[in-house]
């Protein structure tokens, strides 16, 4: 791995972890509400990605589609509402486990086959999710845990929808731009039925999440993907829940519990077994 590729990969993983930390910081420590956070995040991400395309030589064309835009918006909404009650590390673990498992299950649906080792990996990952959600002192609220799983499924769908894109960055920009007016409409509906909450810190976190850890983070990740094997790309993403958990401890005073450690070990080991072992031919 070249120094440039290593830097792109590390920065991308830090951006993904940063998304969880910024969202949790905003919803836990500021006055901003989830609907407002999502509208600002999607809008600022759309602006930055549009500017990236404009600065290309030649200027890039905006691609994407409405299916991708709605999958993106579903992810962002479920992600934000889940983080009103879930610790950063637990949320990231649920999110990335759900992303990987949903994409693996889709592969099975279209006829891909798994080896015995990969099947064992799915079983371990599922067991880890069950342990994480068992009722107890350290278990996250069930509704919000389910919302984070929905966010993971939506992001998995978004990833699958974008596999055929000729220019992934352009497709992402198009999806963000399409999602922006819908997010604004949802924000207005929220404003008509509930109290809108925001403050300077909350808005700043939302802009940072949209413009930096989402917009620029995705651009960095797409640049890294050009030099990474598929299995390597899937594996390095397993570092994100770990980075987020430590970030939550450092910035949010969130404890790293025994349940989180046990569930993390099972889920990360299970997913690693699936993505590192070569699939059987269909």
Key attributes of the depicted protein:
single chain; globular; 282 residues; 0% strand; EamA_dom; 11 helices
What does this structure look like?
With 282 residues, the chain is mainly alpha-helical. It has one domain. 77% of the residues lie in helices and 0% in strands. The chain has helices at 3-29, 34-55, 66-82, 88-109, 116-133, 142-161, 168-193, 200-225, 230-236, 239-252, 258-276. The longest helix has 27 residues, at 3-29. The radius of gyration is 18 Å and the shape is globular.
What order do the helices and strands follow? HHHHHHHHHHH
Describe the largest sheet.
none
| Overall spatial form | globular
Estimate the helix proportion, in percent. Answer: over 70%
Tally of DSSP helical segments: 11
Distance between the termini: 31 Å
Q: Please report which band the strand proportion falls in: under 5%, 5-15%, 15-25%, 25-35%, 35-45% or over 45%.
A: under 5%
How would you classify the quaternary structure?
single chain
Provide the structure class: mainly alpha
Contiguous uncertain segments of 5+ residues:
none
Count of individual domains: 1
Average pLDDT, rounded to a whole number, is 86
| Strands, count | 0
What is the rounded Rg? 18 Å
Subcellular location: Membrane
Main location: membrane
Protein name: EamA domain-containing protein
InterPro entries: AA-Vitamin_Transporters, EamA_dom, EmrE-like
